[in-house]
Amino acid sequence: MLRAEFMDRIRSAAASKTTLCIQGGGTKNWYGQAPRGEILDTTSHTGIVDYDPSELVITARSGTLLSELQSTLAEQGQMLAFEPPAFGTQATIGGVIASGLSGPRRATAGAARDFVLGAVLINGRAERLVFGGQVMKNVAGYDVSRLLCGSMGLLGLLTDVSIKVLPVPRSEITLEFDMAQDHALATMNSWTGKPLPISATSWDSHDRPRLLVRLSGSEAATQAAQQQLGGSTVSPAEAAQHWASLREQSHAFFKDQPVLWRLSVPATTPALELGADQLIEWGGAQRWLIGSTCDAIGLRQKIQQAGGHATLFRNPDKSIPAFQTLSAPLLKIHQRLKAEFDPAGIFNPGRLYPEL
Question: What is the pTM of this model?
């Protein structure tokens, strides 16, 4: 579909107050609240618009497959440093930005929003808006292009996005340590601030309590860190499979679990006794919890008291809000943004919060 066709469809929907559900490959339809409205399909809007490996920037249309973009980058020894999950072969770069999800490297490399340099958006008035640019110096002031990350399509139709990319590390080593959760959290926090090339961490007790840490960088840096930290070396094939299984949630911890909580807490938070299995990433800052939804309010209060928030990441029962309730002042800001970009309220209503 051409941009003009998108504009005509949006203009018509706004006039008739017809709800539109913006959708690419649909690999994350389960995330957030249930999708509503007529499908506005972006999968025909594809292609890499511009890519200069020397500038470390790639620009692509929103319907471009994530796998295609990653293959193009890999040919030049480059990557999306935030390791976005795909959750399926049809994942698009537009869905990556709309969901705002990041993988194991996020704690050290940054989140998806940290790599978005520019974006083209069609708003609810069928206007084509251009934000940011293709170089870091153009990203200043009120950065709407990054605001689109995690917005779940509530503000408009993302048609193009420019993303900063990074070289693939020359060397990666994954180390394994047998240790209980308390010890693992203390160990990860002891590494914070030290000049170590850590790019990912994970702890779980599925087979046995163990901590895995990935080192990425030059060969000299990773080998020096390996000697300093100790532990057992995991084979490259097993390591690659492990980090991919965390990113795509194919790890045994996630298998056949219809209800999954994502807990975001300060990395220094002690072990949380929540009565269910946990998997810990990002140096302790992200904790996955398998459990019931029967006391969602109590769980969220407990996590809030710890200085964090809880997202009901996967749950077939959409009567329970996926995202933690916003404070009144923050909700008002969200509502004003929604009204400014989508005055008729046609884009993905309620996908983030019922009030939007």
Answer: 0.94
